[in-house]
Write a structure and sequence with these properties.
The chain is α/β, with parallel strands linked by helices. Helices cover 43% and strands 17% of the residues. It has a 7-stranded parallel sheet with strand order 3-2-1-4-5-6-7, with helices on both faces. A 6-stranded parallel sheet has the order 10-9-8-11-12-13, sandwiched between helices. Strand 4, helix 3 and strand 5 form a beta-alpha-beta unit. The protein binds ligand GMT.
């Protein structure tokens, strides 16, 4: 049945924002009324849909407050949107602050019986969850939600371990926009970056936070590229960028690296790549691995978090122990030397993306969850 759904998410670049926005667009395509309640227009909301409304949370900077009251303003906006648009459900992406604000907002609203669904994306548990000061807020966000989902089994398990809880967390994996990420190979961009036709391109895409272990990426590439014609395409920017450049110089591989900077659309960059690399120490899902897989680029990933739920070792890519730079280099070399193996893994990856991460199946899973939650009221 058609529902009015409020979505709380981080609108800026990042997997959780992408997942939430694309879910909202798919829900709108299926006839639901979707209301994004965020600090700015979600960057992936590129197409107009009459049944999507964005409600901006504008925080006033009163001189009496030392800190701008963002969370309270968000909760207040949630209450306003519930009453104005007769919302049935609020879907909060991240326990903190969004699930907490969703709960506060529904209590402030005049309309009662609004459901709250929370999706955990990782950082709220694996990073913020380690902060004991924040644990009561995370627990509150989870416990006050009518249903909680996690993007991987690993995250669901880690949530219960971290919070010492026994929460029933349903796993609904991430999916991608299949109209943006599909099997493609387009060598034209190579010329722009000065890449020779016979050079193997290894790509890493991230927000360059310490959790992504860029040092390991650089070190593994340095070993693998020693006697091979290879380039490393680094896409993204963040706090580790300075250290990455320094390390690349120390290892003598600076000239083999292309720094593409922060990019919103990475499909074209994946289309000139042969191997994708993600050696994070924590990763709830790794949306970029799925994007690479959909385009037809096999990944070498660490065994952290939910990555082994996305990649099947030896079948759709390679999984190496976290922090094991030598094994990562070995797998990169193996793929670099064997075009047929790359092709085999890529083909199986494309099939697996369609089999296990089909966006229609994922949206249907959320719809069924909304039905169940609404039936409680
Ligand atoms: O990876 C990040 O640092 C960004 C973060 C986010 O908020 O987008 O990503 C998290 O959510 C993504 C979407 O569910 C997952 O694919 C990422 O694995 C997860 N990041 C971590 O767990 C570190």
């Amino acid at each position: 049945m058609k529902k009015a759904i409020g979505i709380l998410c981080y609108p800026s670049v990042g997997g959780s924002g992408v997942v939430a926005t694309e879910l909202g667009m798919k829900l709108a395509d299926r006839g639901h009324d979707v209301h994004f309640i965020t600090s700015s227009i979600p960057f992936r909301l590129t197409e107009y849909r009459p049944n999507i409304t964005v409600h901006l949370v504008e925080v006033n900077q009163y001189s009496v407050f030392k800190y701008p009251p963002y969370d309270i303003t968000l909760a207040s906006k949630v209450a306003e949107v519930i009453d104005l648009f007769d919302l049935d459900i609020i879907h909060a992406h991240y326990a903190v602050p969004h699930a907490v604000c969703a709960e506060l907002g529904r209590n402030m609203a005049k309309k009662k019986g609004v459901g709250v669904v929370t999706t955990l994306h990782g950082t709220d548990i694996t990073v913020i969850g380690q902060d004991l000061e924040m644990q009561p807020a995370i627990r509150y966000g989870i416990e006050s939600s009518d249903a909680v989902t996690a993007v991987s089994e690993s995250l669901a398990l880690e949530t219960n371990i971290t919070l010492n809880g026994q929460y029933a967390i349903e796993v609904i994996p991430n999916s991608i926009d299949e109209s943006m990420y599909y099997p493609m190979r387009d060598e034209r961009l190579k010329r722009h970056y000065g890449i020779e036709p016979d050079e193997i391109v290894v790509i890493h895409i991230s927000n360059f936070r310490p959790v992504k272990r860029i040092d390991d990426t650089i070190a593994a590439f340095a070993i693998a590229s020693k006697d091979r014609a290879m380039r490393l395409l680094l896409v993204g920017d963040g706090p580790e960028m300075g250290q990455t450049r320094r390390r690349a110089k120390e290892l003598g591989i600076y000239d083999k690296i292309i720094f593409a900077g922060k990019q919103e659309h990475v499909a074209q960059l994946l289309a000139i790549s042969d191997i994708h690399l993600l050696l994070s120490e924590k990763e709830a899902f790794g949306l970029v691995v799925l994007e690479a897989m959909a385009v037809g680029v096999p990944s070498v990933v660490s065994s952290a978090g939910g990555l082994p739920e996305v990649i099947q070792d030896g079948k759709t890519g390679f999984i190496v122990p976290t922090y094991d730079v030598k094994t990562a280099a070995d797998r990169i070399g193996k793929l670099a030397d064997d075009a047929a193996l790359r092709e085999e893994l890529a083909e199986e990856g494309i099939r697996d993306t369609r089999r296990r991460f089909d966006s229609n199946q994922v949206v249907r899973a959320y719809e069924l969850l909304y039905e169940r939650v609404c039936a409680q009221y």
